[in-house]
Amino acid sequence: MNFSSDNWAGAAPQIIDALAREAGRFGGAYGTSDTDARVEKRFCEIFDRNVAVFLVGTGTAANGLALAAAGRPGGIVFCHTDSHVEVDECGGVALQADGARLRLIAGRHGKMRPQDLAAAIEAFPHGHIHAGQLTAVSLTQASEAGTVYTIDEIRALSDIAHQHGLAVHMDGARIANALVHLGATAAEMTWKAGIDLVSFGGTKNGCIAAEALVVFNPDLAAQLPYLRMRAGHLFSKSRFMAAQFEAYFADGLWLKLAGHANAMAERLRGGLEATDRARLAWPTPANEVFAVFSKGLAGRLRAAGASFHEWRFSEKDSLGLADDEDLFRLIASFATRADDIDRFLEVLAQ
Amino acid sequence: MNFSSDNWAGAAPQIIDALAREAGRFGGAYGTSDTDARVEKRFCEIFDRNVAVFLVGTGTAANGLALAAAGRPGGIVFCHTDSHVEVDECGGVALQADGARLRLIAGRHGKMRPQDLAAAIEAFPHGHIHAGQLTAVSLTQASEAGTVYTIDEIRALSDIAHQHGLAVHMDGARIANALVHLGATAAEMTWKAGIDLVSFGGTKNGCIAAEALVVFNPDLAAQLPYLRMRAGHLFSKSRFMAAQFEAYFADGLWLKLAGHANAMAERLRGGLEATDRARLAWPTPANEVFAVFSKGLAGRLRAAGASFHEWRFSEKDSLGLADDEDLFRLIASFATRADDIDRFLEVLAQ
Amino acid sequence: MNFSSDNWAGAAPQIIDALAREAGRFGGAYGTSDTDARVEKRFCEIFDRNVAVFLVGTGTAANGLALAAAGRPGGIVFCHTDSHVEVDECGGVALQADGARLRLIAGRHGKMRPQDLAAAIEAFPHGHIHAGQLTAVSLTQASEAGTVYTIDEIRALSDIAHQHGLAVHMDGARIANALVHLGATAAEMTWKAGIDLVSFGGTKNGCIAAEALVVFNPDLAAQLPYLRMRAGHLFSKSRFMAAQFEAYFADGLWLKLAGHANAMAERLRGGLEATDRARLAWPTPANEVFAVFSKGLAGRLRAAGASFHEWRFSEKDSLGLADDEDLFRLIASFATRADDIDRFLEVLAQ
Amino acid sequence: MNFSSDNWAGAAPQIIDALAREAGRFGGAYGTSDTDARVEKRFCEIFDRNVAVFLVGTGTAANGLALAAAGRPGGIVFCHTDSHVEVDECGGVALQADGARLRLIAGRHGKMRPQDLAAAIEAFPHGHIHAGQLTAVSLTQASEAGTVYTIDEIRALSDIAHQHGLAVHMDGARIANALVHLGATAAEMTWKAGIDLVSFGGTKNGCIAAEALVVFNPDLAAQLPYLRMRAGHLFSKSRFMAAQFEAYFADGLWLKLAGHANAMAERLRGGLEATDRARLAWPTPANEVFAVFSKGLAGRLRAAGASFHEWRFSEKDSLGLADDEDLFRLIASFATRADDIDRFLEVLAQ
């Protein structure tokens, strides 16, 4: 009953098998191997166009490097108040992107609204050098609140950004979960909707450490080889990261794993909606569930072996929590078993 | 016949087995798992004292973070002219360590001499704020030239550094190869000889991506959790890195792997010394071999399937190369087979 | 009728006289002159204790260096939403302070409330390395809204900050105007109320370029010589900056100049309160006036020779502006003449 | 008898007069004043073409910003071993230019030779991302050794740099002294010889703080407004810097001041050549004199009131100093009097 995070899960057997195969042979270091070349081609197929791919070790690296690639001195990036780049990366964007700053846009359920982005951009004193310069918008798909932007919402945000010359970055730590929910192709949800760069996460969905910065706009890719190298994120045995992605994409494994995680979360949501001992904090369609229940119940669930986190969130205060209640995050992953969900719901119902 | 680099080798089966075991279970993210805890304890045993351990993805990360930990504004680090931090990390130290600069000390065969370090430190205008401030010495063991500092040499360098208040960092990308050669314990070659921080490499010696920044001086460890996090080098599934190290240390695997690599290099050196078609550029005791032979011979070896690199090095001009000669680097790894060495020597002899 | 800013004013004759005297002699460069030594001693007298003084060229430099001195990796500084460090320095704090981030606290009339600061600090996940670490609070005195913190308010903010180990920085670009208003000593308004570092501005109050970073906590001063030097803010002819300060402090000139500016602003406020053609946006006690009037009237005033700025401010939307109204900032300086105020009010009344 | 440095001199009366005139009026802040506009036009006349001008407070700022403007991630700048950017700016280039690194080129008498620059550039592994990327060459005119590059030498260095896509920066802290010596126009010595950016110094030659970054290549100027602002080097009362330059250029004052300084140095050189108690370390044509004499004599000169510095320099060891000798630097400025030179020579002769 581990719902702490999808990065508490292990790894899919196919991923380990790929590592084992790769282990038995020699191959070019620093991204020059055949495996790297194959997986770069595979990314082009997945995105149905030429893309530049930069494998890195963590999502924090991918995000920071993406915003560095789009950066300029005094640069400012718009993102949601609760976004990972703001809350969970210890200033990683400022490190990679020469001191870039994040400007926060509030929004319900982890999503920025186009009108709020437009207002923020328009209110910015463009050309006023004291203020700095706007360089990018970063949106998270699926969001930190477990919600998913529709393709129209992404396009609306991208259009506004592009009208003002800003690049658009998608933090896709859970991109597969979002894609499965939308039933869209990777192309439709990204560059066809105006995205310029994607942090494409594999780690949370069954890999051990496999993240890719995928760049659609070749201008934005020019400096990335150097940015990645100096950040220590070009791995000498990069081909072991590539091998993970190769297995991840083979036979649609990545979408199957994400589909399972989403289904497990749905099973949990169904159970929570059917009880009066807990309630959903807000609706989520992918593999994250945000629920409100009593701290006593939380204790009881944990005593029975469940693991999950209380959650800080900008919206928490507006949820009308009772004194003995708290907001909890429960995440399903590729490794979550239906049995675990059912047992959790049983304990909850007792 | 792949002698390109020890990071062109794959991974030891025991490492993959450990990943497979870890894959089947849940575990704390971001270094909080039992596996992480066990491996931290293991590092204390390996070093025979309490140490702080920070797992990271690459040696470039470990080096940059180590020198950031020892850093101060306007900071200057002494290192060898050919050191990895200077030549191969794209400015990574400056990124992590707030613009720290490297001051180069020349030295034969990749090693700094104590008297040259002393002279450089003494010549520095201490307290002259225009010049900056000296913060650390970084030495590489085994060195980029494949040589190994004796323990007395390390102690001599450390003593000089400490007399002036500088921290001492060891870039140990090939630390196991050096240890095996010296027949010393990890403690003897590091903190007992005055080292304050070690970039402890596992990747080149049979892991897929396992590097550890090991800190002996607790003062230097205080900011590292934050430095590592913002650099994107705290891995969510850190326990897969920890698992590699656990297998690496089990039953002395790491020393066996390094011992094999060293022995294979020795076999190659023996063969090269026995022929007049090539000569050793300088003596090396561990797993790297630097040789001089004709470009024609290089072409013939490659045509027969051998792979290795021409090598840039500050000392190259003093080697008295003939016009048709070049300097080549040949590296043996845990995966090098005696057959490969022998075949290489046969082709060379034809 | 120039009310654009106090930095549109020229310089007091005494300041120029001091420069002329200094021009005629040789003196030590980079802060080693007798003039520098005398003015450092003068700062100790002004603040009634030993202080470390770092002369720099601009307030942006003083602020960035102050927050760098208090910085740590992944550092976060609390400041008001409209503070100069956030709005007007193009990311200068991030540059000087190794990527430090600003977290904004809203507050009426440009001032943070102690309870809001306390709530923000308490809500921060201390020790959660993903979030970074809180390093400082920066407050502006007089504030960007022309208001002035009382000594009790400063102490309340400082106490909260210190309880959590944060340093407290005062951006004193208009510190003299605030001091005159409060009738307090420099000591009372700063270190006696818990301030650790002050950006002490002279430029806006009659100097040509004279800013000082004054540090009360010796620990925070240790790295500043290097931080200032690498920022290019240790001036070779520093003694011309020192000479300005010497003249500035002589015979209480600085307080006289600020007193005049405040009085001129008060004359303007009186006039605005007496008319129904304009209203004060909020009360201000020092040399800045924020007023609401019609854009048509603004045009008429400008046509008559007045100069002043429309003003962006977080509070603007809550002022209930009519469609044809705007928010304007009018600043009096040491150089403002009563005649100018009176003429402005006359044009306004016509 | 103050020969410590040209920045120990005061300021020319015309400079102070200009400040006094500017003090009496209001004017646009942050470079928007009429005075700023006039002086920008004046720079275009001086350089006989359109230029972008950025006034800053110090040469360290101008240098760092110039190399930031030409920078790219992992950037490397070639400069002389003894250059100011390397030796005297506490890592300022790394701060402003996102961690850029300096690679040192040795050369007699403070000058890089074209063949050495060519060799260094050609030896660099272009496109090898581990190594970083070459972005600029920075040369100092007059050099730190008091020598002056001929126009042909500048063109030779620039041509080599441009062939490889590197920008060329001139650190012109003593540009006027070099121009007067060469009898060339500012255009001839800079952009006509291939220079892309100039740190144009006024401070050492009679101003109090007036430095300008002059950019010939518009592409390189694009980000400078932001780079300067975030560095705290856009001065609110920028017009007082502009006023200094206006007076500096009026009636050729700048060239007269530099001509005087050079002539005084020549007088000193003549005297030193005529005695056997001292010798010139190497020939210099502008306002700096490097001499070798005994420490005892140095003590006697100082006892008589002379001030000057022992000098560190890469070439010092090759000067064949006797045990009781040292290398001394003596600098003449606009304020040096012939009497002082003569008295110095008299004391020396006694």
> Roughly how much helix do the residues of chain A carry, as a percent range?
40-55%
Instruction: Give the overall shape of chain A, derived from the CA principal axes.
Output: globular
Major sheet size, sense and barrel closure of chain A:
7 strands, mixed
Most extensive interface: pair and counts? A-B, 55 and 55 residues
> What is the residue-averaged pLDDT of chain A?
97
Low-confidence stretches of chain A: none
- How many helical stretches of chain A? 15
Number of strands of chain A: 11
Strand content of chain A: 15-25%
Beginning-to-end CA distance, first to last residue of chain A: 16 Å
**Rg of chain A, alpha carbons:** 20 Å
Describe the strand arrangement of the main beta sheet of chain A, using strand numbers. Answer: 1-7-6-5-4-2-3
Q: Give the ordered list of helices and strands of chain A.
A: HHEHEHHEHEHEHHEEHHHHEEHEEH
Helix/sheet category of chain A: alpha/beta
Oligomeric form of this entry?
A: homotetramer
